[in-house]
Amino acid sequence: MKQKKKTSVAYWSPPQSTRRYLQLRPEKVRMSAITACLRIKTTLTSGETCILSYATPEYDNTFLFEYHSEGTIGVYVNGERKIISVPGYQIFDGVWHHWCFTWKRRGGKWALYVDGEKKASGSGFVRYKTMPADGVWLVGQDQDNVGGGFQAEQSFLGHLSSVNVWDHIDVNINAAANCDDTIGGNVIAWNNVTVVNHGVATYDTDLCSDSREWPDQPECDATCAGGNQSRTRECLPVGSVCTGSTVEKRGPCCGFRCQYWTDWMDKDDPSKDGDWEVDETPCAAAAFLSEPIIAECRVVQTQQPWDASGYQYFLPCSVYGVVCRNAENEVNWREGDPPVCPDLEIRYLCRYL
Fold first, then answer.
1. What's the pTM value of the predicted model, to 2 decimals?
2. Rounded to whole angstroms, how far apart are CA atoms 85 and 119?
3. DSSP 175
4. 348 sits in which H/E element
5. Pentraxin (PTX) domain: which residues (predicted)?
6. CA angle 55-202-288, nearest 5°?
């Protein structure tokens, strides 16, 4: 059996916030053409939602990928906007989708691809203007100025992966959409670009497993992207969130194994060191070997999400835990003073291995 590849996935949990995003730091290049691809899975239907943005001093929206609550996709190039309708396509259906947009300065030729298929195209869009090189790439926030000017109602919620950008349009988009994450962009390559993470949860998963390979532990909730043959097996273990049987199609398949949420855990109380909610084996209570893929954190007293509480965090909420230290939240705090940090609790979404 061949070794399965794992891909890094970023996850934005509710509520929408201006404080969570990824900054990508590729080499800076001027672009007279672009191919920008990514995978998303979301159910958010709030106004205009930004997924990927590139801002420069010349144009706040030098490049921007967004979608709208009415089901359209929006793209900016050098400050000019194109709204694209894709009939029959549900953006926020909670299923993984692969998007690509291509544009070329000469003639202003453009095209939108969804799940490897060209859904719309045209010409005359932003002709003869080169994208400047002195900008900032962000995932999950719309930049109203370079590196800032965020609005919470435009921020992304959901799962995102495989952001790849090229400075040309000669890309095998069908191969990239069909689970070949070895195809990295020459401007941004998701697997090796430098990422500065501002409070976004991440996990590694086999996004595009070969459905002909059956692991020892049966999988559940498999959603396949091709093939017309299928086979059924029972979901194990008993008591997990998955019940009954699972139908798996042959062909490229994108799905997750059985998952479950832990109880809320509060293992530390605020003290002179702050509040440290860190657990090296948060999923160890399960009857079967499992690992955390997402974490949610909140303030015990108010049930307020951690990133809406107004505190500074030494370790933002992630599968590694959450840590608030007094010293970062009160400049004049000294040992012996009452704790500044609130009492925090955390729970994990675990999946069986």
1. 0.61
2. 9
3. H
4. strand 344-352
5. 7-209
6. 165
